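Researcher: Let's walk through a ligand-bound prediction step by step. First, I give you the protein sequence. Second, the SMILES string for pyridoxal-5'-phosphate. Third, you return the three-dimensional complex as structure tokens. Ready?
Model: Ready.
Researcher: Here are steps one and two:
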Amino acid sequence: MSATMQNYIDEAEQALLHTYNRYQVVFEKGDGVYLYDTDGKKYLDFVSGIAVFALGYHNREYNDALKAQIDKIIHTSNYYYNLPAIEAAKKLKKISGMDRVFFTNSGAEAIEGAIKAARKYAFLKDGRTDHEIIAMNHSFHGRTMGALSVTGNPHYREAFEPMIGNIKFAELNDFDSVMEQVTDKTCAILFETVQGEGGIYPATEEFMHKVRALCDERDILMMLDEIQCGMGRTGEMFAWQRYGVKPDVMTTAKALGCGVPVGAFLMTEKVGANSLVAGDHGTTYGGNPLACAAVCKVIELFEKQNILDNVRETGSYLETCLNKVAEEFDCVETRRGVGLMQGLVLNRPVGDIITKAMDNGLVLINAGSNIIRFVPPLVIDRQNVDDMIDILRESMREVCGGAQ
Ligand SMILES: *Cc1c(COP(=O)(O)O)cnc(C)c1O
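Model: Step three, the predicted complex:
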């Protein structure tokens, strides 16, 4: 690393609150599936800002759309209508099959909104304020207090207790564990269709259908967090669409704006007509013209560039390649995932492999301590996968040996 880059890092550590143990690199620009640091070193990016930059960096049409919107208007208030928000909401309804959209500034805020919608829906039915939400162990829903309250990782929550009340935890894909937590006060069951941070665990078909049936039977809201696994990552626009069940409420963010901070929670008409009304919820920035111009262009480019086809095709190739790596290395236990959301589960911490990969020009990230997570831009091709696998193999060989 150059003295210049080291200096940037020192300055960062003087000024920023140290809430991340950052990798020792300062990225300056991106192009397609590549990132460049301030020394000009090139990296193949298999993280995409954690499942955000789905279209790759420096997409000309996307950049131009944002520049054009900046020259028109960046922000008004939610007390007025604006054209990009109208268009973005219509497009989002179309790709999700949901009926009502509320735009937020982040994933955590989308979860906050979903929680409020669920509580209000239940409140309007019986006037009580002791409703319960069932969330899952190993889940991740964000860092604000409400989102943290439904995040199934005690370590994240501990210092910040008390959480919001009446949250219970069950085990993803263990329907009996859900049944054990259900009471007549349960108003919502919330989970990620594919758990991300918790270790790339896709919900099973059986679990999805059983939860849906339970929710129908007892008028409980099924709420799916699609913040990481949505927006094409699994080969469907939203991961739940491959199961043949539909949630009552869903959240999205990350790739929704492909880098412009924007999220949303969406609901069916049933929930929309019986939950949040004027005065119940709001945001200053949420759904502003700049953010919504990004959403519009992203959805448009997903169609134009046949992103879903590429995810299915390149995702299954990535799966095959990772399966080979799993067979070759003793330190790999298994591969898990769907489409371009994959995890390689090791029997050891993966931090030093990721650092080694960075040295070798490949950006990877972990999910938990012993899983290497692959959430690349959705525009990658087979050659990118081959290049990634070469560097991954080399980095793993250097750190844990064991390649046959
Ligand atoms: C990233 C993430 C969140 C939180 O989103 P932020 O934009 O960081 O607040 C919530 N749920 C899931 C599944 C996520 O991956």
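Researcher: And what stands out?
Model: The longest helix spans residues 307-328. The pocket of pyridoxal-5'-phosphate is lined by residues 106-108, 111, 140-142, 192, 196-197, 225, 227-228, 253-254 (CB under 6 Å).
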